[in-house]
Fold:
Amino acid sequence: MEVYLPIAEQSMNVFVLLGLGGAAGLLAGMFGVGGGFLATPLLIFVGIPPAVAVASQANQVVANSISSLQVHWRRGNVDLRMGLVLLLGGMIGSSAGVSLFTYLKAIGQIDFVIAVLYVVMLSTIGILMLVESARTYIRRRRNPEAPRGKLHTHYLVHRLPLKLRFYKSKLYISALLPIGIGFVIGILSAILGVGGGFVLVPAMIYILGMPTAVVIGTSNFQILFVAANVTFLQAATNGTVDVVLAILLILGGVVGAPIGSRLAAKLPGVVLRGLMSVLILAVAVELLTELLRTPSSFYSLGTREVLP
Amino acid sequence: MRRLGGFAALAMAVLLALPLAAQGPRIEPPASGIFGPMAGPRVDPTVPPSVPNQVETPDLIVDLSRARVSITSAFQGESILLFGMFDPPGEIVVVVVGPPARETVLRKQRVLGLWLNTGRQAFDDVPAYYFIAASQPLQRLLARSAGGEILSLEDRLSSVRSVGQREHDDLIRFRLGLVEVKRREGLYPADIGQVAIQANRLFRVELPFPSRLPEGTYEVRTYLLREGKIVAAVSRPLPVGKVGFSAQLAGWADNEGPLYGLGAIVMALLAGWIGGAVMRRI
Structure:
């Protein structure tokens, strides 16, 4: 069954899009990250223009994060103060990111930048995760009671000015750090259409040193507003948000997420992370080959301008 | 609030049209449809004067199976039947031209092992769509030169204006690149369509439109040729546009971007909230 996407201006199979949303939801449920970082490249693979894929994916992230924020908020797992500070950076970053996006689109380099950023990000995260899960796996087999390593070290964090007390996270650190992290995530969010949870969560644990319990809820809080800001700005400046595409992805995700979390409960964490890292690396390799392979056509068209 | 402006303009137009309507008979385009009366020859004012005026002599009658191409939520491309009748002898040539626009052609080049767009060339007056069909091999018909009126795609594109300066050979490569991309998208069908002639006076041809079709008013021109000369020509506009839900959404996205964005956010919030709550129950 085909559906015409009014903003992407092409028809696409409904089940392909529902499946993509479902796969992203499955990942979200399994790993607690948005899944946008896999959905966006896949949308581009099936032929959605990158600009539309990114902007519509941001819209999907809004739905995804409100859905999991619901749970974490009720359980009191949101450090509101930290969330707001991160959000300050996130808002600035995502607004700057959308302007950058508009500029890159105008000079015809947006597809290339999206692909390169994805390759760099996915391969870094994929390799880190693969190494980490392999190590844990080996260590567990040798000594199942091995203590976990120290979570964070104190160096730069404690020398920066503007220190704030974050009671829920039991931290007393400079506000500049979360603002900076929020800023970077905001840019990523705007250009790649991802929530950024898969970068934000490790950053909150390893750089800020937040307790794991509040990390997911707080990151969801910041992602919700940043994704909403990206959706709004992309719609207002580039007109690239396709709500028909977004709603299909959301529907797929809503069904996929609980299946993912049930699956996650059955599989051990190490295996899960190992699988995930292989998946991430596969997408990175595919994107990289696209960049390296001699294209079937050297030519493409930019935006059509109807002159008055 | 451009939409309010639109309403105001519409109201003005209606008010202005009223006295005109009262004064005398209004000229209306003939109704068309498969079973409707056949449209009489209509000469478009944009057709150059080289085409003889055919209003009185119905040597050539043309109609389309649909009056417009409607891009609905289920649109997957469409084939429209053009059919008609002519006074024999003669040959029929049909040219369908999409609205012109500025197209920017991007060229990829290998830089440090990676392929990225390094060259760009804009062309003005590029037709969004170009299709030719003929009842005989086109070369034979055009060899006798139909007064420079019927142009093959190559001829039509040789007249597009390049924006800015570029070396001649390179410009040709970009122009070929433009054709290549448009071919791939089905907007410049590579094959020349076959106009089928029956009973020596009836003709028909399918006009193929792909799913990624730019909007605008297309022009469908039908020529009757005798001994290489155009003896009659009929031009019909063919509007291509989104309708219904698709049109509404695209219109909002274009004209009321911020409002559309807010709507998209609210939609996502509701869907995520309700969906999440429902799925957790199951």
Notes: Residues 1-56 of chain B have pLDDT under 50 and may be disordered. The two ends of chain B are 44 Å apart (CA to CA). Residues 33-241 of chain B form a domain with the Immunoglobulin-like fold (CATH 2.60.40.1930).
